[in-house]
Specification:
- It contains one helix and eleven strands; from the N terminus they run ββββββαβββββ.
- With 171 residues, the protein is mainly β.
- The strands form two sheets. The protein has a seven-stranded mixed β-sheet, with no helix packed on it. A four-stranded antiparallel β-sheet has the order 5-6-10-9, with helices on one face.
- The N and C termini lie far apart (41 Å).
Amino acid sequence: MPCANSITSSFTIDCLDSNGGVAEIKVRAFDANLVTNGYATVTSGQATFAGAGLTDWYLFECAQETSIANSDGATDRANGTTVHTQTITYINNKLKISFRNTLNSMHGMLVHVAVKDNNGNAWLYGYSRGCIVSASSATTGTSFTDRNGYSVTFTGRESAMPLNITNYDNL
């Protein structure tokens, strides 16, 4: 049976006013029933949170030009599958016990990750299957100008690209 996919828009070269990088992320425990519980609505690639969906998000500020978020899609025609591997690498520039304890708690748990990019756009990673802390490291550095801190990688695998969050600042 053919797919009902269609291309609905043309795209031109936009103004050169875009900035790369991540401004901040917010993390909350994964809830597979965000929509069915009424905590979020999803329409045309956008998520809007409400009620309890607005609570229990924890802010992780990002140092300038350190953190990154990616979504890489791959389709296997022979198997009839498409998967988007979603990866967020967060950098925290200081070894400290409070972050160490938070990181230890996050290892092994599923989370949603809300990413605000440097253009003011917000994206929800791990919407339907969650993200995990797939890698982390703590380093002291060698010289005085080296990073003394953490690198944390969240990874999720979804059937679609991250959703745009319409009310990120309310989380």
